[in-house]
Amino acid sequence: MTEMVYGNLPVRDGEPVLPKWWRTVDRWSMSCILILFGIGILLGLAASPPLAAKNGFEPFHYVQRQAFFGGLALTAMLITSMLSPVVVRRLAVLGFIAAFIALVFLPFFGTDFGKGATRWYSLGFASVQPSEFLKPGFIIVAAWMMAASQEVAGPPGRLWSFMLMVTIVLILAMQPDFGQAALILFGWGVMYFVAGAPMLLLLGMAGLVVLGGMIAYNNSDHFARRIDGFLSTDVDPTTQLGYATNAIREGGFFGVGVGEGEVKWSLPDAHTDFIIAVAAEEYGLFLVLCIIAVYASIIVRSLLRLMRERDPFIRLAGTGLACMFAVQAMINMGVAVRLLPAKGMTLPFVSYGGSSLIAGGIAVGMLLAFTRTRPQGQIGDLLRGRN
What we know:
A hairpin with a 4-residue loop joins strand 1 and strand 2.
């Protein structure tokens, strides 16, 4: 049914791929992604030279790498956005299988780079974080399972997706990587809610999450330190949260001036997890609000376009990708202003990080592919027809 044509949108037979893509893609959201990447390069010019000097590299070593990986990410985004939803699903399933296998073998062949959590494969010239590539693949696979369960005599897709989600969350928690585990859990929960899950079940799952957090607090020193630091009334000014909090306070509304910030000399992760602190100190609250507005524009436009979508798989997958993208940005900024416990999570398309940039490009490319205009009319047409 979802491939039938409804509404008055013309179908142009034999139209070349590029003109058809340009006519149907959400150009506003794509422009917002380019703006975020440009802001990331701008902030990288300020945040990365101190780290480059410390490690014996050229001043803009990390900026050049960010531009390179960002170019790969934008290329992946554009290519993926040109694909049909069926092709996106097939490639995502293959990518998910590869990322899942890499995640399973991470404890045996991975490295922690001295950060206390084994999350990366070292390739010598670069590193790969499998969980970044696992996230978009999992969203697609879980959405496919949930959509299949809605068909007549369909498989128990919701149960299968739940079991898969629990497996991945447990593997990530063992690294430990509670941030990525929380994103996987949240993305699945949003899709399950959109698919029609009863509220009582969602409340029960929320209780299980709280119980799991208590167990992790009592059995993981890494997790307990993060929570204790977040709940403490006093912030140690020599910690990353202390430096970030002070930088945001010093920035005020319009910042201390380009290149005049001090936090980049103190924070080892100023170019990654705490990039928003650099933005707040040098450019002030004004730039931070602009960044938030750009993220909000992408999410709101994507969800509005998905509301008109009649294919349940596309609707579920697109919603999961959009909400996961939004929550990752919220977590990164929330940590910097001490609204959330510290998490090693990048700000999408702004922070430095090859795996984060490329995986983010693939995920946003999938979202753009799902939100492209299709000649199917609105979902309200189907509801009115049933009445």
